[in-house]
Design brief:
By secondary structure, the chain is of the alpha/beta class. About 40% of the residues lie in helices and about 15% in strands. β5, α5 and β6 form a beta-alpha-beta unit. α8 packs across α18 and α12 runs parallel beside α13. The protein is elongated, with a radius of gyration of 26 Å. The two termini are about 15 Å apart.
Length: about 475
């Protein structure tokens, strides 16, 4: 697991570390890391380092200082370095002196070079908010070279990853001490490019992280696999209450994902029983929840409908006393019929899996708005409903009522296709039935879902059926990471 810390936490930790560190030492360590990755990027993109040209975009404050010191280190490798000062009066004094001593060139924005092999973004740091100012935005508009961002891409909100105007889009970001929310949330994922972490000794000062990101090996270790004493019942029986005459495909996709997720058993209850049996003969399919038999968890909602029949199905599932994943129409039913919460067994976990519009339906009556801070919104809904909330998006956020937050950042958007959410629900339901902690189950399901989407797409648009077929490959990748 990788930790992510908010900027306020990082600043406090840095202050403690700097209090026991020689002045300027941390900046030089950070800048050397920037220079190392810059040289590597130059070698990869141009075939060499010496004789290449690098432009530094330098704002005020420490990130500008990091860029200037990095430029001084690059000069030692015979790189031509030009620093463009966006705020000359606030430029880092020691960094400027170091670059001058190394033979670097320092210019104003009007004399910025027309071309370079690499641009280093040292415009703003973690304290900045809002888009790039006009002068910086104009410079970025002219850039065609690869960009390396110092700590974060300037113009992107450091705590939410949101972009509200001109902002840097980096090929590589070199950050220091720990990951920040900008690297794993929202547009920040794309704008940060590949993120490299430089150790500056900050770890002992950080404390528990604000967000968690699962690594493939974390998912592989948590994913249930059969042991020598297991049978279909001990591995978890998943109930699926989904689909309708209008949307039988939702039942087929949800049940299929549950079948492929674990080696347990799947029971389907609903009007699409014939369609489910035809595609998945291993599923025990019946017409109603009452006839389904015992299960260890339910998935309820995909394609269920929002009328009285769907309402009765959801009430029956909530009364069953086992963990429930509520998705799609199930979320709409809870939003429009809040009395359904009364049917819930208070000791049974509920996992809500809304996309943005479903989130608004269930959260806005509670006074919760989904703004730029998606982590805060998901956490508040989790606390108010006593549920785990999996908020879908380019970065999927999983929050539970205790305040734990897990983020699954995606590197592609292939999952944005009809039926994809049904696949996720089936995965999650199977993990709940297997007995995983609901918060961890949601995070693991999101990881495998995203990896299956990438495997199914292979660079071109895909479909939910193809994503479904790629689940074994995604689970295999997670399992393989445990022994890698």
């Amino acid at each position: 697991m990788r930790g992510v810390w908010t900027t306020d936490r990082v600043k406090v930790a840095e202050e403690r570390l700097m209090a026991r560190t020689p002045v300027g030492a941390l900046m030089r360590i950070a800048a050397f890391g920037v220079a190392t990755h810059a040289a590597r990027l130059l070698a990869e993109r141009t075939g060499g380092v010496a004789g290449r040209r690098v432009t530094l975009l330098v704002g005020g404050g420490n990130n500008g200082g990091d860029a200037l010191w990095a430029g001084a280190f690059l000069r030692r490798r015979s790189v031509g370095v030009t620093a463009v000062l966006l705020s000359p009066e606030r430029a880092h004094t020691e960094g400027l002196a170091a670059l001058r001593r190394a033979g670097g060139r320092i210019v104003s924005t009007k004399d910025a070079p027309a071309s370079a092999h690499l641009v280093i973004d040292g415009i703003v740091g973690l304290s900045a908010r809002g888009p790039l100012r006009p002068a910086a935005a104009e410079l970025m508009d002219r850039i065609t070279a690869p960009v390396l961002a110092v700590d974060l891409p300037s113009g992107v909100d450091p705590d939410t990853g949101a972009v509200d105007g001109p902002a840097v889009g980096a090929d590589v970001t070199v950050t220091f001490g720990c990951l920040k929310p900008v690297h794993v949330l929202g547009a920040g994922i794309v704008r940060s490019g590949t993120v490299h972490l430089v150790d500056i000794g900050l770890g002992p000062e950080l404390g528990e992280p604000d967000l968690i990101v699962l690594d493939p090996a974390d998912v592989g270790r948590a994913w249930p696999v059969p042991g020598p004493r297991d049978d279909k019942y001990t591995q978890g029986v998943t109930g699926v209450a989904a689909g309708s005459a209008t949307y039988p495909g939702a039942a087929v996709l949800t049940a299929g994902a549950a079948v492929l997720a674990t080696s347990g058993m799947v029971r389907y209850a609903g009007s699409a029983a014939d369609e489910v049996r035809a595609r998945w003969p291993e599923v025990v399919a019946t017409g109603s929840v009452a006839d389904a038999g015992r299960v260890q968890a339910w998935v309820a909602g995909p394609g269920l409908g929002t009328g009285s029949a769907g309402r009765e199905v959801l009430a029956g599932v909530l009364r069953d006393g086992v963990p429930v994943c509520v998705d799609a129409d199930g979320i709409t039913l809870l939003a429009t019929n809040p009395e359904l919460w009364d049917a819930r067994d208070p000791d049974a976990a509920v996992v809500l899996t809304p996309h943005d519009r479903e989130f608004a339906r269930i959260a806005e009556p509670l006074g919760i708005s989904l703004g730029a801070d998606r982590v805060a919104a998901a956490g508040e809904l989790a606390k108010r409903t006593g549920s785990v909330v999996l908020l879908k998006g380019h970065s999927t956020i999983v929050a539970d009522p205790t305040g734990r937050v897990l983020v699954n950042p995606a590197r592609s958007a292939w999952l944005a296709t009809a039926g994809s959410g049904d696949v996720l629900s089936g995965l999650l339901g199977a993990l709940l039935a297997a007995g995983l902690d609901p918060w961890l189950a949601a995070g693991c399901a999101a990881w495998v879902h995203e990896r299956a989407g990438s495997l199914a797409a292979s660079g071109v648009p895909t479909s939910a059926s193809r994503i479904l077929e790629a689940i074994p490959g995604a689970v295999r990748a997670a399992r393989a990471a445990v022994t890698a």
